[in-house]
C-alpha cells in the first residue's frame, strides 16, 4: 500500500485500478484533487469545443442516435436520462457551498448566489432555484417583491418584475 501511495499515478491509471475518489481522500489527497478525479470518472462525453466563453458539443457526439428514429418523445427522454445519468452529482462531503450567501443546487455540486433564486432564469439542473420555498427569508429580502396566493408567499428577484 505504501508503494501505491508514494508513486505518481495518472487519473487513467487510477481508474484502471478501480480507485475511487474516496480512496484518494483516505490516502491524504486534497479535496480538490479528489473532486477533479470524481469529475474525471463521470466525464462520459467526448471532448468539448470552445467558442469564446461557451462550451459546446455536437448533438451527435452525445451518442443519442438519430432523433427522428424515436417513436415518441418519451423514448428520447429515457435515452437522454440513461446517457447522462452519471453526470448527475449528488451533494456530498466532497463539495458544498462554503458561504452563507450561496445556494447549493439539488442533486448537484453547483453553487449559485442566493440573489439568483426566483429570478426567472433556471440556473440549477433541476430548476430548484426557481421553485425555492424560503425566498422571503433570504438576506436580500429588501431587494425582492413579495407576492401572495392564499397562504403561499414568494419573494421574487427584481429581475422578474417587469414594468
Automatic annotation (TrEMBL):
Gene3D superfamilies: Low-density Lipoprotein Receptor (4.10.400.10). InterPro entries: LDL_receptor-like_sf (IPR036055), LDrepeatLR_classA_rpt (IPR002172). It comes from the Eukaryota. Keywords: Disulfide bond. This is Uncharacterized protein. It comes from Rotaria sordida.
Amino acid at each position: 500500500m505504501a508503494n501505491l501511495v508514494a508513486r505518481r499515478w495518472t487519473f487513467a491509471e487510477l481508474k484502471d485500478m478501480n480507485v475511487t475518489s474516496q480512496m484518494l481522500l483516505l490516502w491524504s489527497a486534497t479535496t480538490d484533487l479528489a473532486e477533479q478525479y470524481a469529475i474525471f470518472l463521470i466525464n462520459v462525453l467526448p471532448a468539448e469545443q470552445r467558442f469564446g466563453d461557451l462550451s459546446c458539443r455536437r448533438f451527435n457526439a452525445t451518442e443519442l442516435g438519430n432523433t427522428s428514429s424515436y417513436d415518441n418523445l418519451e423514448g428520447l427522454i429515457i435515452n437522454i436520462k440513461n446517457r447522462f445519468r452519471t453526470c448527475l452529482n449528488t451533494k456530498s462531503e466532497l463539495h458544498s457551498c462554503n458561504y452563507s450567501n450561496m445556494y447549493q443546487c439539488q442533486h448537484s455540486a453547483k453553487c449559485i448566489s442566493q440573489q439568483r433564486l426566483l429570478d426567472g432564469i433556471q440556473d440549477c439542473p433541476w430548476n430548484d432555484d426557481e421553485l425555492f420555498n424560503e425566498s422571503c427569508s433570504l438576506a436580500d429580502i429588501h431587494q425582492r417583491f413579495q407576492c401572495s396566493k392564499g397562504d403561499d408567499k414568494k419573494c421574487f428577484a427584481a429581475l422578474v418584475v417587469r414594468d
